[in-house]
Fold:
Amino acid sequence: MKGVVMRHILRSQQFNRTDIEELFKATDTMRKAFKSSLGRVQFRPRLLGKLMFTIFYEPSTRTRFSFAAAAIHLGMRVVGTDNAREFSSAIKGETLEDTIEVLCQYLPDVIVLRHHEAGAAERAALIGERHGVSIINAGDGKGQHPTQALLDLYTIKQELGRTDDIKVVLGGDLANGRTARSLVYLLSKYKGVRLIFVSPPELRIGGDIKSHLIEHKVRFEEETFLLDALLHAETLGRDIDVVYWTRVQRERMENPGANFGESYRITPEIMSHLKQDAILMHPLPRVDEIAKEVDSDPRAAYFRQAGYGMYVRMALLQEILK
Amino acid sequence: MKGVVMRHILRSQQFNRTDIEELFKATDTMRKAFKSSLGRVQFRPRLLGKLMFTIFYEPSTRTRFSFAAAAIHLGMRVVGTDNAREFSSAIKGETLEDTIEVLCQYLPDVIVLRHHEAGAAERAALIGERHGVSIINAGDGKGQHPTQALLDLYTIKQELGRTDDIKVVLGGDLANGRTARSLVYLLSKYKGVRLIFVSPPELRIGGDIKSHLIEHKVRFEEETFLLDALLHAETLGRDIDVVYWTRVQRERMENPGANFGESYRITPEIMSHLKQDAILMHPLPRVDEIAKEVDSDPRAAYFRQAGYGMYVRMALLQEILK
Amino acid sequence: MKGVVMRHILRSQQFNRTDIEELFKATDTMRKAFKSSLGRVQFRPRLLGKLMFTIFYEPSTRTRFSFAAAAIHLGMRVVGTDNAREFSSAIKGETLEDTIEVLCQYLPDVIVLRHHEAGAAERAALIGERHGVSIINAGDGKGQHPTQALLDLYTIKQELGRTDDIKVVLGGDLANGRTARSLVYLLSKYKGVRLIFVSPPELRIGGDIKSHLIEHKVRFEEETFLLDALLHAETLGRDIDVVYWTRVQRERMENPGANFGESYRITPEIMSHLKQDAILMHPLPRVDEIAKEVDSDPRAAYFRQAGYGMYVRMALLQEILK
Structure:
């Protein structure tokens, strides 16, 4: 990001390793200063009076609050709606482009957009660019959710101290889950990354991702059961650093037997096979795919992950609105 | 509250008489300063830059606006949702504990929570406590709504000048109404309080409340018709100080005849039986259980009651976030 | 507005020519200062700390954001809801008057109200007046939407440089469209205004408007097809200055044949019949009654119109809250 003006946050691919390093340094600085006694006071003026619109075509209160809190901690004002589908309702039918065009007329500094169609953020950015208004993609359908991928990577960096030479299990519904796919793209930029995909056969990671990994020479394996992956790894020296877990919706499995479903649930017993400095991540919300009793395990990093997310978003806002 | 740090507002019972006295003094100060020409300017800095989340699992725009306005008048920022059920929707299913844990990661100073399950606020406070985030119960199902009870008591104090030695009629749906029940608990702390419960037989106040009153030696009677209570009182010297009225939903009555329903409607005729310095209260919203023509009666205190509520909430915020 | 305190914005008719001139001057000043590098900084303090409630009984995110952004650019705080029908839901049933009375107790400076019933804003203003709280009508059913009419007129002034001696085509659903009707009322205050109404026979402008125009000696014609109006005008010297277009809902037409529907769609071909300094306006949202290809025509003024709208609202806020 050095020297280059980055106006919009649309896809994880727009960040190269140097961009990411700078972003993570800025995030570190933000966290340190903010947690010090004078933190909030020091930060407030940086983006004082700037205006954020949060435009959510599908409700995601968690993500909306993360962005709104990030903005407010930096001194910004926020106007938002969970109800943006009203723009494009049958009666009032308006294109996304028209909606963004009108919103830009109200002179926000940034529009955080959550939309149900892949590519929506990029379409919005074409409009925003003309008005000098930044667009942040907060998830567009099956497309991208770049701030989630960045916060996932930051969590690994923060918790393990590195993003090279790591072995990562990604598990759950890898066919439909947006977060695991995006993280894989980011991880493929790093050296010595090894991946193990764990999912029911019908929910395997897509061929596009596998091609991408082969092209970037990232080693990966596929397993059906987490325990197999863990025991296999154990023989190699308990070498798994990260378990990134997501939900398998039972209705998507072909054989959703009780025992089978249980295989996609992380329990203290499962945790006992992980080494002491490994971490367990999850994009949240968690339903029952991680047992509540795991929460007290210091390796359970999923709530800290949500917290890092807000700081990553603060750093991004400061970068694009500076 | 002197000397003791009070972090959360969960139940009316957490306040003893001294706490309440101090809270009411702080509320008085707030009102006086705020109403003076420089009021708003003087207040703004007290909680400047603090952040409130309003998390409402069931919409209650009235209560949400009261808290938001209280916060804003004190210089705070507010991010809110009426749509918090989305957190725990069938698809995304997340426990209240997880939701609060994630929201705390975004570093609010206080979370105002409205939930449909009794005990929700106490569960949330267990999480908030770990993060130094205050939780305010803005109504949890059939459980508590402590700021409502406090504002009701403040209204009595303010309008009558005292909270001891008062005779209070509580009427309407006493079986299901949360507000009347909570107020009774608070009133039982005071001396010389006498209560008359007025309700259809099937909507009588619960046995738990009666036991509580007997234990605390609070005198009470039960009547089916308000007019009987008033005429009876009249012979004793028109001694009723407060009529606290709530709605009887006709569908809950066993004999919802037109005349019967009319008995639970306050009219100018009914008001003529009350003494000049009595007051009529109502938690609002009012439907037709108080005739519109009563509004111009100076004893109709229900709108002032809503106004006092905002000041009580300002005083509480200042207390717990100081 | 000179010398007179104008507290509420309820109907376009409350503004005389002098008021409008002053409002437009204030809007010009606002735009110039705001667009300069120091603009935002200079403006912020004017209404610093004032509080706006946006109370929308029917969602209109576009209008709500326009008011909220206007307020925030002036330093105000905003609390809002799209969900105000909850106030008057079957279960909680509360009159508009009670709702406004309660909201005024929370000490906002202004309430922006969108309601489904004509006359709602005037009823709200009777309550607001008692509390010194301004009410702004942001659309009440088939009634008024005065800030829309003012921004439409400001757009004409700004784009053409005058509001006298203009020829305006108003087209689309003139029977049900609130915006075209309101604009006609405002235009009738000016000299040398000539109107051409274009609509399917069943969606003609109302007799009340025609009587008003006759009384005020404003010349008008009626046509069924825009092309006829344009070609007719062309023989008179391509004298049309403004085309104000709105949507015809096909289900409201008696003969909604494809070709007929096409006649109510503005295309580049239609634009070719307009003179170079004419403008095309639309209250938005636009569905397909203006072809997307028209957007790049410099005469397409509809998005600028939305932008002017925010400034007009800023000027109004500054006027009524000064």
